[in-house]
Amino acid sequence: MPVPLIYLVEDDPDIRTLVRALLVREGMACETADGAAAFWALMERRRPDLVILDIMMPGEDGLSICRRLQAGHAIPVLIASARGEPMDRVIGLEIGADDYLAKPFEPREFVARVRALLRRRARQEGPTTARVVSFSGWRLDLGARALTSPAQETVELTTGEFDLLSVFINRPRQVLSRDDIMDILKGRQAEAFDRSIDIQVSRLRRKLGDDPQAPVVIRTVRNAGYLFTPAVEAGS
Q1: Domain-by-domain residue ranges, the chain?
Q2: ∠ CA 209-123-210 to the nearest 5 degrees?
Q3: What is the pLDDT of residues 114-150, one digit of tens each?
Q4: Taking the domain 5-124, which CATH number applies?
Q5: What is the pLDDT of residues 32-51, one digit of tens each?
């Protein structure tokens, strides 16, 4: 099994050394960058399996890197930051991060979250993803991770949005609670109160042109969860 490659972007040299040593000890390859310039240089050489970002860095900060990364690359992002207020977490998830962990963190939890993101990526790249489905005029190529609108326009999806849409299209017309979705996406590494699902649903609705005030594609079922209403058909 290939060793996963992780890029760690952290301007504190002590934290950089400690986190890299932790990941290597857990059987992962880790290359580090002390800021945006070094990170983008790494990206020119090879695409990683996961990017771990600090937020507060001189020059281009972690939020800007995450935004640019999700706009052009389908790579999972874990933000690990000393800014641990709920609004910081919401902002990080809104711009496309797949998970957010506040510093200082417990090493075992950190490793568990990293492994959960890597497992999700591995499942997505397995042989079962090489298929195409359609719903309400939309076309999703699961192998290429490409979404095409009824107007034949390509719609860019972040890793989190693609993951969530994959959950829905594999369970159409089935009410899924937030816990159901969290279990599918993250296992039991999710926190008891985690707004990331609601945030991802909101973002995915916008991408699908679903009216947030009266959504018809991804309906909110009161006190139950979410319902993906279109019929999903296999297609080429």
Answers
A1: 5-124, 127-234
A2: 10
A3: 998 888 776 655 444 448 889 999 999 887 888 999 9
A4: 3.40.50.2300
A5: 999 999 999 999 888 898 99
Mean pLDDT for the stretch of residues 85-90: 77
Output the pLDDT for position 188.
42
Closest by alpha carbon to 152, among 141, 165, 139?
139
On the 0-12 / 13-18 / 19+ scale of CB atoms within 10 A, 64 is: middle
Between residues 192 and 82, which one has the greater pLDDT?
Answer: 82
**HEC profile of the chain:** CCCCEEEEECCCHHHHHHHHHHHHHCCCEEEEECCHHHHHHHHHHCCCCEEEECCCCCCCCHHHHHHHHHHHCCCCEEEEECCCCHHHHHHHHHCCCCEEEECCCCHHHHHHHHHHHHHHHHHHCCHHHCCEEEECCEEEECCCCEEECCCCCEECCCHHHHHHHHHHHCCCCCEECHHHHHHHHHHHHCCCCCCHHHHHHHHHHHHCCCCCCCCCCEEEECCCEEEECCCCEECC
**Quick check: do 5-124 and 127-234 share a fold?**
no
Model confidence, pTM: 0.59
Right CATH for 127-234 from 1.10.10.10, 3.40.30.10, 3.50.30.10, 2.60.40.10: 1.10.10.10
- Token digits of residue 105: 């963190």
> How far apart, in whole angstroms, are the C-alpha atoms of residue 46 and residue 41?
9
* Confidence tier at 182 by pLDDT (50, 70, 90): confident
Tokens of 34: 């002390």
